[in-house]
Known about the structure:
Number of strands: 0
Shape: globular
Strand content: under 5%
Amino acid sequence: MNDTHVTPKQSVAPLLVPLVVGGLVAVALGVYGRAHAPTGFAVGVAGFSGPLAMKAWLTTGAALLAIVQVLSAMAMWGKIKVSAAWVALLHRWSGRIAFLLTIPVAFHCLYSLGAQYDVPRVMIHSLLGCFFYGVFTAKMLALPRRGLPGWTLPVLGGLAFTALIGLWLTSSFWFFTTIGVRF
């Protein structure tokens, strides 16, 4: 028997522009981070003992909110049973705040340190940072597009989550286990 299931036509073509722009963002950040002469000066460490503590704590906050993002996305996609109308609002605002927490960290990394490829941990961290902003850009540009395959947002969101957790592991986790927990 031939089982035909009619679904609306979905295409990956509308995803091309977000992926290309996201790729350009990632490459531009990497090129800038490598070409820019690092200043070595800390930026925006108010309330923290130093720039590494600031970066570790802001990245930890972003990583915790990224976990909220995954759980709320799972609830919105029906993978976790929650009947609360506020889940979508929680998802949007936790994502916005998580992204905002990454801005001073990324600015400090690019301005003060630049992209570094000498130490494996730092190289992975630099590459993940570029990848995170590229995939985040692609996801934000894909959000309003209609007709995308159903896997698009979960895959882009999962990649952004994975990159952010990788950034946390190569920075905050390293800081807390090497230098210690301090503000």
